[in-house]
Amino acid sequence: QVQLVESGGGSVQAGGSLRLSCAVSAITYSNMYMAWFRQAPGKEREGVAVIRDGIIDTAASVKGRFTISQDNAKNSVYLQMNSLKPEDTAMYYCAASYKTTGWIFGPDKYNYWGQGTQVTVSS
After folding, report:
1. CA-to-CA distance for 120 and 123, rounded, in angstroms?
2. pLDDT of 37 higher than 90
3. Which carries the bigger pLDDT value, residue 1 or residue 35?
4. For residue 118, what are the CA distances in angstroms to 37, 66, 72, 73?
5. Helix, strand, coil abundance in the chain, percent, nearest 5
6. What phi and psi values does residue 67 have, to the nearest 5 degrees?
7. What are phi and psi of 73, to 5 degrees?
8. Closest by alpha carbon to 47, among 1, 26, 56, 70?
9. Distance CA 48, CA 92 (A)
10. Cβ-count burial of 86 within 10 angstroms (0-12 exposed, 13-18 middle, 19+ buried)?
11. What long-range pairs does 22-26 form, CB within 8 A, spacing at least 24?
């Protein structure tokens, strides 16, 4: 079983920064995909960034502004968000998966989810 707890969301003005944290509790962290997703009202859940064994993939929509990182000693995954825009407003979720198949930015690949943390960016 994997448990995920997000923190760090909040309200910020456009151009500002936020850092999201995800505390991870798992039996093994080997070969685990860790990802950040977001979902705005009325929209589908969107994959933002993924990390697995140090390999990072970032969605085009946030590339150059968002950075995913992992601290194995603290069993945590982070999402540093810079140059935030109003369109980044969404509920942000941490997700985990051991599945070796499936699109890394697709929600179906992930079977462990956190409760979400709200990010609101005002213009």
Report:
1. 10
2. yes
3. 35
4. 12, 16, 25, 26
5. 5, 55, 40
6. -135, 125
7. -65, -30
8. 56
9. 9
10. exposed
11. 22/76, 22/77, 22/78, 22/79, 22/94, 22/114, 23/75, 23/76, 24/75, 24/76, 24/77, 24/94, 24/96, 25/75, 26/1, 26/2, 26/75, 26/96
Q: Is the per-residue pLDDT at 27 higher than 90?
A: no
Please, which residues bridge with residue 120 across strands?
11
The answer to whether 69 and 55 are in contact (CB under 8 A) is no
Burial class (CB in 10 A: 0-12, 13-18, 19+), 47: buried
92, 6 Cβ separation under 8 angstroms: yes
